[in-house]
Write a structure and sequence with these properties.
Shape: globular
Order of helices and strands: EHEHEHEHHHEHEHEEEEHEH
CATH topology of the largest domain: Rossmann fold
Distance between the termini: 30 Å
CATH class of the largest domain: Alpha Beta
Structural class: alpha/beta
Number of helices: 10
Helix content: 40-55%
Number of domains: 2
Radius of gyration: 19 Å
Amino acid sequence: MALILKGSQVAAAMSEELSRRAASLAAEDVRPTLAILRVGERADDIAYENAAVKRCLAVGVDVIQHHLPQNAPREKLLTEIDAAGKDSGIHGLLLLRPLADTDAEDAARAALSPEKDIDGMTAASLCGVFTGSSTAFPPCTAEACVTLLDHYGIPLAGRRVTVIGRSLVVGRPLSMLLLARDATVTVCHSKTADLAEACRSADIVVSAAGRARLLDRSFFRAGQVVVDVGMSTDADGSLCGDVCFDEVEPIVHAITPVPGGIGAMTTAVLARHVIIAAEIAKSRKYEGTFR
């Protein structure tokens, strides 16, 4: 039986520390505050927003929610982002992505103030991640993967890690975080030849392909650690990941469940980023790292 890497346990441990830090800020009249901006009514956006609000409120982070209709003009989106950037009481802005209008998303990315970019979407934040700067917030899901592995004592230095997916939300920034920890990283994607061999040759496999049950038992061998970032709905409407969990779990050393794995971690990392941003705003300088 594999070790089940439950994100909910890690998030609970993180929440205790975050509550203390938020209370310390509140004692100095600083209320860590997150603004969430959602465009449209996508079910997955609403589910993540609800989870983020619940997590943030539980640890002492205030939340301001802004909702725009799917057909809202780009100017309205940019106005909301500009207002959040100018509001000193808001410490971070989360724009739920992807947007249907990719040009609008690019414009939003350019308009967001980097110091309030707590989900690593701006060019400045991504540049910081790729150059190894400790003053940039990585995308929350990417950081959640590393945080989970650390919590369970899974070493990264010298390990071979295969990352499936090359998006700017998970795959690419996660690869940089892993390289910073001295892992040897292979990034795979839809054009990768012999994906199964790339997975079997790794010590750790992180899949962020977003394709339901893409990876069956033939992709894995004994002793591996599997982190499944995917979240899809299968034919019967059940939530599932990229990995065929029931087939793979008996083989590998450790594996994350879906749901209950990385998804449970991401909102805790989001709350941590908002609290750090509030601490930075209070002190006007910051030394150290985000992890």
